[in-house]
Amino acid sequence: MATQELPHGDSAGTLLGHPKGLFVLFFAEMWERFSYYGMRALLIFYLTKHWLFSDSDAGVIYGAYTALVYITPVIGGYLADKYLGQRKAVLFGAVLLTLGHFFMAFEGEPAAGNEGNPIIYVFWLALALIIVGSGFLKANISVIVGQLYPRTDVRRDGAYTIFYMGINLGAAIGSLLCGYIGETYGWAYGFGLAGIGMLLGLIVFVWGKPLLLGRGEPPAILAKGREFGVYGVGVLLVAFCWVAIQFQDAVGVFLGTFGAALVCYVLAIATFQLPYGSYDRAPKPALMSYIGLSALLVISMFFVSNGDAFWRLPAVIGLGGVISVMVLQMIAKTDHDRDRIVAAMFLIIVSIIFWALFEQAGSSLNLFTDRHVDRGGVPASTFQSINAIYIILLAPVFATVWTVLGRKGMEPSTPMKFGLGVVQVGLGFLVLVWGANSVGIDVPTPVIFIFLIYLLHTTGELCLSPVGLSAMNRLAPPQIASLIMGTWFFASATGNFAAGLIAAATGAEGVGEEAGKQVVLDVYSDVGMFAVAIGVGVMVLSPFVKKLMHLNTLSDDTVDDDLLGQDEVGEPQAAGMRPATRPAE
Asked: What residue ranges are annotated as transmembrane (predicted)?
C-alpha cells in the first residue's frame, strides 16, 4: 500500500518533539552498528591469530569483505523500492545479520586457512550473511526516517542528527565492548556479544512496528509467492557472497573490469547522449573512436586486474584515448549537464583514493596498534572506537564552521573540501611515521600518535564524506541520477578493496618484529606522501572543477534536490540509501 505523509501530530504521540518511530529506528540502527563495528574491530585479529592467515592474505580478505558490504546494498535498495518495501527489507536484513553474527561465534580449533578445520566454511557463511544482511538493512532503514516526516517539516534535520548519533554510539560502544571481551576472554564471546547486540536491534524493530505508522510498506500489495521469491533472491545472494569471499581475486577482477565499463558508460552518456539528444545525432567519428577506446580499456582492465603486466600499456592507451575524446568534445560543444557529470566523476575517483587509505583503520592500522604501540595493556581492537567518538564530538563543530563560513561567502567548494580530506588522511600516516621514528624503531610507538592519526583521518572524513552524497545528488541530471549515485557507491567498494591491497603490502611475516614494523612504516610513508600530493593537486584543480559544476546555472526544478542529514553523517553511506531531502526555499 502507498504510504501517507505524517502530519505534525501523529497518533502514536511524540517523544522529545519527534515521532516515537524515530527512536525505534534509532535503537535498531544503534544495535546494528554495535554488532557490525564490534565484529569489525576483531575481524583482522581473528583472521591472523585464529585462522593464522598471513597479514597479506588477511588484508585482502578484509578488503574483499568490506567491498562486498558496499556492493550488496544496491540490490537491497532496489528490491525494497520495487517489491518488499523498506520495513520488510530491514527486517529480513536484521534476521540475516543476527544469524551471521552468531555464526561468527563458532570458531573451532585454530588452523591455518582451510587446513584441518571445516568450521572455516561456517566462518565464510557468517561473513556472507553479514554482507547481504547489511545490504538489505543499511540500504533502507534511513529511508524510513525520512518517511516519518512531511517534506516541509522543520524537524527533519534534527531527526537525522538524532539518527546518526545512534550510528556513532553503536559504533563506539560496539568497538569498545566487543573488542575488549573478544581479545580478553575469547573470540566466541566477542562475536557472540555482537550477535546479542544485533538480536536486540531486531527485537526493538519488531516491537516498534506500530510506532512506524505504516511507513516503509511495499509500494503495492505483495503476493506471498513473490515476497518469498524476493527472500529467495537474498538467499542466493548469500550463496554468491559465500563463494566470492573465498576467492578474493575474483572480487578484484570484477571491480576493475566492471568499474572501467561503468565509468566509460557514464562518460558516454555525458559526452554524446546528453549534449546531442541521442547517440544517433552525435558525431560518428568521435563516437566510434570512443567506443573502440572504451572497449580497449575494459578488456585491458580485465587482464590487469588478473595481474597481467603486459596489458598495463594498452589500459593506459585506452584511458588516455577516452579522456582525449571527451576533452575534444567538451571544447567542441558546450553542455552544462555533461560538465557536471565530469566534475562528479572527478570527485568519485578522488573518493576511491581517500577510502583506500582511510579504511586501513580496521586492517593494517589495527595490526600496527596491536604489535608496535605502547597501549598500556588496553586491547588494540578497542581503539577502533576512536573514530566514532571523534565524529560525535566534531561533526557539530564542522557543521557550524561550514555554516558560518557559508554566511560570509568563505566556505570551501566541494572539490576543495575533497582535496582537504585527502591531504588530512595522508598527513595522518605521516604523523604516525614521524612519531614512530622519533622514539626509535626498536621502541613501542607512543599511543598519542594513534589518537593523532585517527583525529586527522576523522577531520578528513568530515571534509569529504558528508558532502559526497549531496554533491552527487546536486550534479547528476535527473535522468541518470540513480546511475551516478550507484557509481559513487561502487567507488566506495573499490576503495575498500584497494584498502585491502594496501594492507597486504604491509605484511612482513618472518622478517622479525623490528623489520616488520619498518615495512609498515615505509608503506605508510609512501601512501602518506602520495595522498598529500594528490590532495594538493585536487586543491589546485578545485577552481577548474568548481567551474565545471556550473553552480550558477543550477535550478530547483524539483522540491527535493538537497539531501538532509549530511552534516551529521558519521560514516560513509551504504549504497542504495535514499536519504530524505530538503525542499527548495
From this structure: 59-80, 89-106, 118-137, 158-182, 188-207, 228-245, 251-274, 286-304, 310-328, 340-358, 388-406, 418-436, 448-471, 483-507, 527-545
pLDDT of residue 147: 77
Q: How far apart are CA 375 and CA 369, in angstroms?
A: 8
* Helix H or strand E segment including 14: strand 14-15
- Rounded Cα gap, residues 216 and 89, in angstroms: 9
* Helix (H), strand (E) counts: the chain: 19, 6
- Sequence-distant (6+) residues with CB within 8 A of 75 are 135, 233, 237, 576
Half-sphere exposure of 138 (CA within 13 A, CB side): 27
**Whether residue 9 has pLDDT greater than 70:** no
- C-alpha grid cell, residue 539: 586543491
Q: What is the pLDDT of residues 308-348, one digit of tens each?
A: 999 999 999 999 999 999 999 999 988 999 999 999 999 99
Residue 356, pLDDT score:
95
Q: What is the pLDDT of residue 126?
A: 95
Task: Please determine, for residue 307, whether its predicted confidence score (pLDDT) is greater than 60.
Answer: yes
The single-letter DSSP state of residue 374 is: E
H helical segments located in 104-155: 119-137, 141-147
Question: CB within 8 A of 58, min separation 6: which ones?
Answer: 44, 47, 48, 363, 503, 507
Confidence of residue 269 (pLDDT cuts 50, 70, 90): very high
**Cα Dmax for the chain:** 69
Burial class (CB in 10 A: 0-12, 13-18, 19+), 186: middle
List the alpha helices (DSSP H) in 550-582. Answer: none
Torsion sign over Cα 155, 157, 158, 164 = positive
Q: What SS3 class is residue 518?
A: helix
> Of the candidates 365, 312, 302, 372, which has an alpha carbon nearest to the alpha carbon of residue 499?
365
Question: Hey, is 582 helix, strand or coil?
Answer: strand
Q: Is the separation of the CB atoms in 476 and 269 below 8 Å?
A: no
Residues 6+ apart with CB under 8 A from 311: 299, 300, 301, 303, 304
Q: Is residue 557 predicted with pLDDT exceeding 60?
A: no
